[in-house]
Amino acid sequence: MKQNTDILVIGSGAAGLTASLELAKDFKVTLISKETFVDSSTWYAQGGIAAVLAENDTTESHIKDTLIAGDGLCDEKAVRFCIENGKSAIKWLIDSGVSFTKNESGSDYHLTKEGGHSHRRVIHAADTTGKEVSDSLAAKVLKDKNITILENHLAVDLITEDQVCKGAYVFDKEREQVITISASSTILATGGASKIYLYTSNPDGASGDGFALAWRAGCTLSNMEFNQFHPTCLYHPEAKSFLISEALRGEGAKLINHENKEFMKNYDSREELAPRDVVSRSIDEEMKKTGKDCVYLDISHKSEKEIKKSFPAIHTKCLEFGFDITKTSIPVVPAAHYTCGGVKTDLKGRTNIDSLYVIGETSCTGLHGANRMASNSLLECVVFAKSAADDIKINFVPNSHNLSNWDNSKVIRAGENIVISHNWDATRRLMWDYVGVVRSDDRLKKAKEKIKLIHDEVEDFYRNYEISSDFIELRNLVLVARIVIESASRRFESRGLHFTSDYPEKSDQAIPSLISNKDLNY
Ligand code: FAD
Ligand code: SIN
After folding, report:
1. Which of 89, 257, 483, 492 has its CA 20 to 30 A from that of 389?
2. Partners of 111 in the beta sheet?
3. 208 lines ligand 1 (CB under 6 A)
4. Global pTM?
5. d(CA 263, ligand 1 centre) in Å
6. Best substitution site from 43, 46, 244, 380 to test ligand 2's pocket, by max atoms within 8 Å of Cβ?
7. 441 and 423 in one domain?
8. What percent of the chain has pLDDT over 70?
9. Into how many domains does the chain fold?
């Protein structure tokens, strides 16, 4: 089956929704999402969106903080571009119906603080900012007659000819068939890859599909060794690493060990509000030193009223697991949270493949460098979605592609799924154990050998059997894990989120890593 559209947007998080709304003013847009429309990391975002909104804050200060958090590896042009466009991005969200929390008097928006920020600059909707952004933009998209929404449609591969992207093969999960969608421009907005790790704050869909699709299409990826671990996810066997927002620390929560002792001051003068890489590594070290499985976060010194007002969702969720944050500390551990690297793009979301744009967490714009500062991600989603949309508008050429259908004539239906479930678990545990918060040459070498075996088994399966959505996700997950391991093995220094015990110092020169499919030809 074939479909044609002007613009194909793959992914319905903040980036995909923003781009769709902007482009639907002029074009027919097809927006696909592999699950339901609002199933995305965006929906789960808690803390908020960073932008220069307070009178005593400045663009230069937000830029400086972002560069410090990025540990020398940010592209200053991208940082400046994103932050200079921050205020208008927030205005666009408000005009699109997003309702942010007001301050006590109701006269202005309440701004909170998070790690690395020298000012209060995080605008938020209590502690469920992502839900508010996602639901508001989704409501607008649903009303837009120029947008066709295809839920439960999973992009399998991009279709490229002569370095030009002409659309994608898309798996309709309900009908179990692959359709061919041709488009004048294609936007990948598929979110991150934190599901490559056993413990993650991300929803199940974060299997890194966009990185893998772009890679197979010939895109260059950058900085894939920088995987961010959020310092504070709830430590409970049934909590699925539920995130405890950094905004709690912004409002005064303290990290303590099993002896009730504050420990962050032993690691960094910025204490609880140091950038995330520093706090996660400090927790990791504290856990190793004390031999305990977790540390604790305590905000109970604040009044019950304040806590319930600022963090209603976190308060309720913790109660479900038996922890009342107004009265006691809660057990927390770091978990994989954000993919700082991604498909290399310019300030307009353009890649090295014509007519292919990449935005949001799947992209590497240069904003985050070696470590993303809290709440800069949603900002990047909106700012770069808008600049990609502007570029598409200027360069639009009507779609006249005639594409071949997906060929499944040489494969048969698989009789069992054990290859999928086994390798899914094996990859995620391998990444957690060998490519985690602290790395070493020896562990990376072992990881490289092990992931190659898994990769070859999965590719063999792909050549012989019909695809399913679980299998497509596994294939992507394994490829992205391999790219991360390869990228990590090539960085002989410790910088930002990449810390290796064999090279604990930072090199004099900060060089972003670049990797493409010719680098994994073995
Ligand atoms: P996502 O929101 O992840 O959306 C990806 C979309 O792509 C989904 O619709 C998915 O179904 C779809 N998709 C994926 N693969 C395919 C495929 N093959 N075919 C079709 N569709 C596909 N950042 C902040 O700035 N502030 C915060 O407060 C904050 N809090 C966070 C809290 C949590 C718990 C998490 C997990 C993240 C948080 N982040 C926060 C990070 C931020 O939410 C994400 O980086 C951001 O939302 C990513 O947006 P996106 O549009 O790029 O992708
Ligand atoms: C949080 O609320 O701690 C998450 C913020 C982010 O990931 O930017």
Report:
1. 483
2. 123
3. no
4. 0.97
5. 32
6. 46
7. yes
8. 100
9. 3
Q: Which atom of ligand 2 is nearest to the CA of 129?
A: 2
pLDDT at residue 329 is higher than 90:
yes
For residue 376, the ligand closest to its alpha carbon is 1
Residue nearest to atom 4 of ligand 1 (CA): 13
Distance CA 339, CA 498 (A): 12
The answer to whether the CB of 229 falls within 8 A of the CB of 280 is: yes
- Percent helix / strand / coil, the chain, rounded to 5: 40, 20, 40
The residues annotated with a catalytic role in the active site are 276
Q: How far apart are CA 154 and CA 11, in angstroms?
A: 9
82 CB-contact burial (10 Å; exposed 0-12 / middle 13-18 / buried 19+): buried
First to last CA, the chain: 36
Q: Is the CB of 342 within 6 Å of ligand 1? A: no
Cα(209)–Cα(33) distance, integer angstroms = 12
Between the alpha carbon of residue 388 and those of residues 8, 16, 169, the distances in Å are 13, 11, 22
**Which CATH number fits the domain that encloses residue 243?**
3.90.700.10
Q: How far apart are CA 102 and CA 222, in angstroms?
A: 38
Are 24 and 146 in contact by the 8 Å Cβ rule? The answer is: yes
Check pocket membership of 334 for ligand 1, CB cut-off 6 A.
Answer: no
Query: Which phi and psi (to 5°) does residue 319 adopt?
Result: -60, -40
For residue 48, the ligand 1 atom closest to its alpha carbon is 28
Residue 412 lies in a domain: no
At 365, the pLDDT band (50, 70, 90 cuts) reads very high
Whether 245 lines ligand 2, by a CB cut-off of 6 Å, is: yes
